[in-house]
Design a protein that fits this description.
Distance between the termini of chain A: 57 Å
CATH topology of the largest domain in chain B: Rna Polymerase Sigma Factor, Chain: A
Helix content of chain A: 40-55%
Number of helices of chain B: 8
Strand content of chain A: 5-15%
Oligomer: heterodimer
Strand order of the largest sheet of chain A: 2-3-1-4
Largest sheet of chain A: 4 strands, mixed
Order of helices and strands of chain B: HHHHHHHH
Number of helices of chain A: 12
Number of strands of chain B: 0
CATH architecture of the largest domain in chain B: Orthogonal Bundle
Radius of gyration of chain B: 18 Å
Shape of chain B: globular
Number of strands of chain A: 4
CATH superfamily of the largest domain in chain B: RNA polymerase sigma factor, region 2, helix turn helix motif
Radius of gyration of chain A: 21 Å
Chain lengths: 268, 190
């Protein structure tokens, strides 16, 4: 039986146009990386972090490092040798921190500081109840939840890990932490801000975005944060803030993919 | 079997899969699952979460899935998650804020982005109106570029049924496109 020619392969026509547009849509790497993180597969995240290269591997997502440390030194599933060695150093570091923190070797991956914020919890090892909660609810829960409550600092909670996720706590503003280790936290933080903005909770979302640079000194995702801030300010009618943010985006990150949007906003 | 029953069934105990296998599953099939969810009516803002839900659910039972059947297994879980997500979120089409990350690669210009976004929105609208069994076959053939034989395996239906559904789905889709085109002309669009 021969299959018919696909509609998208026709040279013209609306049907082909629509299907080609859909074909051009791809998920971004971050979604996959966060899925791996949520599954406790930090090593796999290390091996898929192609954008940032070896430097970023040294700054592997905090939750990843913590989870890897808790996994008895599992240095990643497919990371290259150099990556493994850097990861192993981080793992040793985190195990040490965990032990000092008084936690059991398998129980706690990292307890980083007494500083007040933001707090990242990786949920305990998946129990049947947790598994049920992960798969059964009528709404797929967000990967990470941030509670921006009356407390001055939002709490960031990571999704449950399916395989090996001992309790892990780390605090991004901990002076002992290398800021470059916080990439995973940054991703989680920004995603949550985006989710809040998308659900109409503008002030909470903006609160997170405005606190980003203070929380993450390395701020490697700053262009994206500024872009989100720009859109949020614009939507909130805070045009002077939007203009200031757009100008900063253009000045500091002229080659960023988001700079074009900022220029457009500024009328340049 | 309804979706909730299936969800519980999905959690029935099975031997745990190795982390390597789970990681391989995610790496190899994430894009497939994500695109499938999108074309099954999950909005951009929810697609990452839904895809993650698929893999979290799948990982719990992967140990019981024989090698080579992973894609079919994921397909079943994705259909289930898509149905539940659509039910709980409603048929939200487009989210108000663009996904910044989506723009990082290749960066088409603003007009192209807008055109693509509009085209996808129209496509999703047309797909939404199709019968589910036709829609699934259509998406797998036209967008995932599977053969009818592969679709038959994935959906666990005879090849003849897959081919028949595909033929009906294409006719249905093309009629809908023709109507959309006529509406566009009539309303003074391009």
């Amino acid at each position: 039986m021969t299959d018919p020619e696909r509609l998208s392969q026709r040279s013209s026509g609306l049907a082909a146009e629509l299907l080609r547009a859909a074909g051009a849509e791809q998920p971004n790497d971050r979604g996959m990386q966060q899925t791996l993180l949520a599954l406790g597969l930090s090593g796999a995240v290390l091996s898929t972090t192609s954008v940032v290269g070896a430097t970023a591997v040294a700054s592997a997502p905090l939750a990843s490092v913590a989870a890897a440390g808790a996994a008895n030194g599992s240095a990643g599933l497919t990371a290259a040798g150099a990556i493994k060695s850097v990861s192993a150093m981080l793992i040793v570091k985190w195990i040490g921190i965990g032990v000092i923190g008084g936690a059991g070797l398998m129980g706690v991956a990292a307890v980083a500081s007494e500083a007040p914020s933001p707090v990242v919890h990786t949920a305990p090892k998946r129990t049947p109840e947790v598994s049920l909660a992960a798969a059964k609810p009528s709404r797929v829960e967000p990967r990470v939840s941030v509670v921006a409550s009356a407390a001055p600092e939002p709490v960031v909670t990571a999704a449950p890990s399916a395989h090996r996720a001992p309790v892990a706590e780390a605090r991004a503003s901990n002076p002992e932490l290398d800021p470059s280790e916080s990439l995973g936290l940054e991703v989680v933080y920004i995603d949550r801000a985006r989710a809040l903005l998308g659900s109409g909770q503008s002030s909470e979302g903006l609160q997170l975005l405005e606190g980003y640079e203070q929380k993450f000194h390395s701020a490697r995702l700053l262009p994206e944060v500024l872009f989100l801030q720009l859109e949020a300010y614009e939507r909130s009618g805070r045009y002077s803030d939007a203009r200031r943010t757009a100008q900063r985006l253009v000045d500091d990150f002229p080659k960023s993919p988001h700079a074009g949007r900022a220029r457009k906003f500024l009328g340049q | 079997m309804n979706a909730e029953a299936l969800a519980v069934d999905e959690l029935e105990s099975s031997p745990p899969a190795s982390p390597e296998r789970v990681a391989g599953l995610v790496r190899e099939h994430y894009a497939f699952v994500w695109r499938l969810l999108r074309r099954l009516g999950i909005g951009e803002a929810d697609a990452d979460d839904a895809a993650q839900g698929v893999f979290l659910t799948a990982s719990a039972r992967l140990g019981g899935v024989e090698s080579g059947r992973e894609r079919a297994f994921l397909y079943g879980v994705a259909l289930n998650i898509a149905a539940r997500t659509r039910r709980s979120l409603g048929r939200r089409r487009e989210e108000p804020i663009d996904s910044a990350g989506e723009r990082e690669a290749q960066e088409p210009n603003a007009e192209q982005l807008m055109e693509q976004r509009q085209a996808r929105a129209l496509l999703d609208q047309l797909l939404d109106d199709m019968a589910e069994d036709l829609r699934v076959v259509f998406v797998l053939f036209e967008l995932e570029e599977l053969s009818t034989r592969q679709i038959a395996e994935l959906c666990e239906i005879p090849v003849g049924t897959a081919a028949s559904r595909l033929r009906r789905a294409r006719e249905d889709f093309e009629q809908r496109v023709a109507r959309a085109e006529a509406r566009r002309r009539f309303s003074g669009g391009e």
